[in-house]
UniProtKB/TrEMBL annotation:
The keyword Cell wall biogenesis/degradation does not apply. Signal peptide: none annotated. Keywords: Coiled coil, Membrane, Transferase, Transmembrane, Transmembrane helix. GO terms for cellular component: membrane. The chain crosses the membrane at residues 50-71, 112-144, 251-269, 275-299. Pfam families: CDP-OH_P_transf. One of its GO terms (biological process) is phospholipid biosynthetic process. This is Phosphatidylglycerophosphate synthase. It comes from the Bacteria. GO terms for molecular function: phosphotransferase activity, for other substituted phosphate groups. Residues 159-186 form a coiled coil. Belongs to the CDP-alcohol phosphatidyltransferase class-I family.
């Protein structure tokens, strides 16, 4: 058997930044469970993923009953299901036995869990009260969960495309400038300030991307966020604190939304019947507010991208005019 320590688990499996719910309420337990699981069992990440779904289905069954003891039990099972869901990725990173199929399975089972628990929770309350508002609340929960995942995936894809285009153009400009300097007999090791700035703009954005880095890796600087920082200079002052605590600035993400609906709302409803809809509305409003911030930040980054690309393309055109015979060969070398 392996002999991983708790520090090994933290250094090799913790994300550099994560949701505050995960950092404060899940990781302390999950890390210890991962240590025991990794050292004393041969449980695989995919088995943990399946276990998380089973617990999620158990939570849904409790929600469907709808009475206060089952609401509390359902909330507990859902939180344990999410803890197992966090453990599968940690085990995969710790042991290096993750897979593409495992990542797909984790994503699909997450969506199934949210869908079934939303239907079960609201259906249980509808059967007890006859209030049709619970039906529409279930639709809203499923829609918001779908919306935030679609937004995250599409934003990630477009950012990757922007970086690829900037990178290809930067490399072309770099090659052309080197050729021009050689022709002029200048020092080819010097890099122009414009190209240096373009290169720094290609570094990773830890917030907008999938945040799959772990502690111990050096986080890169932000990509194409100059406009955002100019409009919100206070953001730079809170970043160091959030970085130290591993809490990401996206304070109300899909994780907090899920926990608000499937943990906080059932617990409150056990003490105060009728609390599920107001709590879900608050959770949904928080999710929408932060998603709008992400969209706004992404819009600013597209403007930064357009300006950076225009400068690079202008540089390329000027160098091509100076070295017309070099263009075909250089274009072949830098085309992605």
């Amino acid at each position: 058997m392996a002999n991983f320590t708790l520090d090994d688990v933290r250094q090799r499996t913790y994300k550099a930044r994560d949701a505050w719910w995960t950092v404060l309420l899940v990781d302390p337990l999950a890390a210890r469970l991962v240590k025991v699981t990794a050292n004393r069992t041969n449980i695989t990440p995919n088995q943990l993923t399946v276990g998380a779904l089973i617990l999620g289905l158990g939570a849904g069954a409790c929600f469907l009953v709808g009475t206060w003891p089952y609401l509390l039990l359902g909330a507990l099972l859902y939180h344990l299901s999410f803890t197992l869901d966090c453990m599968d990725g940690k085990i995969a990173r710790l042991k290096g036995n993750g897979s593409v199929f495992g990542a797909w399975l984790d994503y699909i089972f997450d969506r199934i869990r949210v869908l079934l628990c939303a239907i079960a929770l609201m259906a249980g309350q509808y059967l007890i009260t006859g209030n049709v508002a619970y039906v529409w609340t279930a639709v809203a929960v499923v829609f918001l969960d779908m919306l935030r995942y679609m937004d995250a995936l599409e934003t990630y894809k477009v950012r990757a495309q922007m970086r690829a285009k900037l990178n290809a153009t930067r490399l072309e400009a770099h090659e052309l400038e080197l050729a021009a300097r050689r022709l002029r007999g200048e020092d080819v090791t010097a890099v122009s300030e414009e190209l240096r700035a373009a290169e720094s703009a290609l570094r990773g954005d830890p917030e907008a991307d999938m945040e799959d880095r772990v502690l111990g890796e050096q986080p890169t600087h932000q990509v194409l966020q100059q406009g955002f920082h100019e409009k919100f200079p206070w953001y730079a002052r809170i970043r160091p604190f959030l970085a130290r605590t591993r809490i990401r600035p996206h304070l109300f993400s899909g994780i907090e939304f899920q926990m608000g609906v499937f943990v906080v709302a059932p617990v409150l409803a056990a003490a105060a019947p009728g609390a599920i809809i107001p709590t879900t509305v608050v959770a949904g409003a928080g999710l929408l507010a932060f998603e709008l911030v992400i969209i706004y930040k992404f819009w600013l980054s597209t403007r930064d991208y357009s300006r950076s690309l225009a400068k690079l393309e202008g540089k390329v055109e000027a160098l091509r005019a100076e070295l017309p015979e070099q263009v075909p060969l250089l274009a072949q070398r830098v085309t992605p």
